[in-house]
Amino acid sequence: MNQADFYSLLPIIVLTTWSALLLIVDLFIDDKKKGITAVLAAAGLALTMGLTLSQTGQTVIGFNGMVILDGFSTFVNTLLLFSGLMAISVAYGYIKRRGIERGEYYSLILFSIVGMMLMAQARDLIVVFIALEMLSIPLYVLAAIDNSNAKSEEAGIKYFLLGAFSGGFVVYGVALVFGATGSTAFAEIAASIATGNAETLLVLAGAALILVGFGFKVGAVPFQMWTPDVYEGAPTSVTAFMAAGAKIAGFSALMRVFATAFPDIAVDIAPVLAVIAALTMIVGNVAAIAQKNIKRMLAYSSIAHAGYILMAFAAFANPALRDDAISAGIFYLVAYAITSFGTWAIVISLEKEDGKGLAIEDYAGLGRTKPLMAAAMTIFMLSLTGIPPTLGLIGKLYLFRVVVEAQFMWLALIGILTSLISAYYYLRVIVIMYMKEGEPETVSESWLTFTWGAMAVLTVVLSLIPASLFAWASGALMK
Amino acid sequence: MGSQTPWVYVGIFVLVGLFIPIAAIAIATFLGPKKPNAIKQSTYECGIETVGDSWIQFKAQYYIFALVFLIFDVETVFLFPWAVSLNSLGIFAVFEGIIFILILLAGLIYAWKKGMLEWA
Amino acid sequence: MTVFIILALVAIITALGMLISRNAVYSALFLVLNFATVAVFYLLLGAPFIAITQVTVYAGAIMVLFLFVIMLLGTDELEDTDNLTWQRPLAIGLAVVLVVEGIYLMLSQNTLGFITTPSEDLGSPQAIGDMLFSKYLLPFEATSILLLVAMVGAIVLTVKNKKGEQS
Known about the structure:
The complex is a heterotrimer of chains A (479), B (120) and C (167).
Chain A: H1 3-8, H2 10-27, H3 35-54, E1 60-62, E2 67-69, H4 71-97, H5 103-121, H6 125-143, H7 150-181, H8 186-194, H9 200-218, H10 226-233, H11 236-261, H12 266-289, H13 294-314, H14 322-350, H15 366-369, H16 371-385, H17 391-405, H18 409-435, H19 446-464, H20 466-475
Antiparallel strand pairs in A: 1-2
Helix pairs in contact in A: 2-3, 2-5, 3-4, 3-5, 4-5, 4-11, 4-14, 4-19, 5-6, 5-11, 6-7, 6-11, 7-9, 7-10, 9-11, 10-11, 10-13, 11-13, 11-14, 12-13, 12-18, 13-14, 13-17, 13-18, 14-16, 14-17, 14-19, 14-20, 16-18, 16-19, 17-19
Chain B: H1 5-31, H2 38-41, H3 60-84, H4 86-89, H5 91-113
Helix pairs in contact in B: 3-5
Chain C: H1 2-20, H2 24-44, H3 48-73, H4 87-108, H5 125-132, H6 137-158, H7 162-166
Helix pairs in contact in C: 1-2, 2-3
């Protein structure tokens, strides 16, 4: 291990050490003062974010080519750390209120983020797999952390069983790719495919299996079945983290693997991904219409958004468009992360002790009793639909542009049609908030209020000046 | 099969190990006189009649023990090649192995402090 | 070769025995035997380290865990209830397809022959140690964090919440 190795993973090493120490330190913090743990966890994330940002613009390959630090990883890691901070911010009051406050909650979030960051920096399929497990195990546990509640336990076990299964698919895929190309390093896999040394059939089978594994992680059709149940059963603060963090990590790994390890079979894979994207958008948006529970509706909405991001992969077949596709994809991830954290913060504000207050009908009258909160919710719903002036619209515009440039007209058309469908159920929430009479009970916690307030402002303001953010995303290229 | 010759001996040992108890039981069945009666057929355990089913529900604590054991079992598996190749790897590998142990030590401290290793 | 065929038969029979057996403990014991046969496969492939790992971790520790769970749940005999009506024929059908596919591949492509032994000490602990601490250092260290997280996770899930203690 030399200095370059160390430097390439510096933020991750710091965060890992911090998480492990936090785990131990938390043992000595009194049960009534778990807020200290939350603050320490947030401090660790902030410190790591500072380190990550200080590495902007650098490219370092470390650990014998196992990991890479580049623009892409810096961008994605910053986004992941931001998600971690938001996850702690929405969880802080909520887990106390629900009586599930434990120091491990924060340590597990930190460990999960370590896994996600490692995933974004991976340059070898073995690292991808270990990172996948490292980010997933804390999520399984967090989903079931309310272990006196049968629904939470059910969510945990469902997520765990299917997650373990999908992890198996990834390993099997890695084994096949290794068998065909003789290596697990992205660069060597790509070289082996390019020179024609690899058994194409085996590579394709391996790539397909890896795709299945990640398709599960991001909730793409037909591997989306777990999403509504897990999102509904898990404590809402965990769901918020799962929706953003796991998606960002899953998609960044998919982008990295398919752009750097399998560029030469992208032509074969792109149509498959386009079909998956189309199905995911249709299933997610259509199923969301029938939902009465806001958590389930948002679960289907998250499936639909996975479909939109998957559209970016359709453009992978054209090497000239690959960089545009990646920047459009990660830009959309930013938009989705900001909007979704804001939405979840409001959902948490309305959720009551016994899990009531989650029906969409419970939002009736919010426009009158809490005008600011209702306004923020309106912004988020507009953003999820893709109506101006919100970040969601800008994200969709960039995505559709790439898809159209890649000559996938039908896919863009499905994207637009499903967005129209989605308007129905997103706008219904707004209608219920303003048009229906009701007395919604809300919890006002400073951190929750901060989260939805800040996210609402970000959603609008960033949409007015998207160029600088998009420029940063465009600079986030893979080396 | 050149390099695997030592394993053949292991195989022979396994076979012999299986053969002896099987032979002992088989010979006893063939040679022993069989005169069963009610007392002989009863289950013998410390001289007292057994009560209830031998299939009882175990304490959950067993499970946690087994799980913690499993984690450290895997750790040993990783440390074995470390120990074997320390000579050829040099001083750096010593630290790398120690980091590995330290990280898992955090887990041990955690389990200990949580009272998981106590039979409560 | 003969060793392989005998072991392959044992492996298949024990795997089937594990599936068919109605008694969970018998299933677990069949699984032990299956793990042991797989360990010998690894030996035949020239990977003694993995073989021993298979025995200590899988046939040893994980089986103990399985048995504890079986005893913990206390379901010794499984009733003959079968809710999976259409899944079973489907599974058998797909399995047959897979086998036919495998045989076809083996016959059509001569490259997929029977097992060949790789170089002498590829799978020796020494060689694995050398690889683990040079090229694969990062995955190795990451594994320790993975193990730590798994342990913490298991403990978190077994300790009930404060809320749970009250009720």
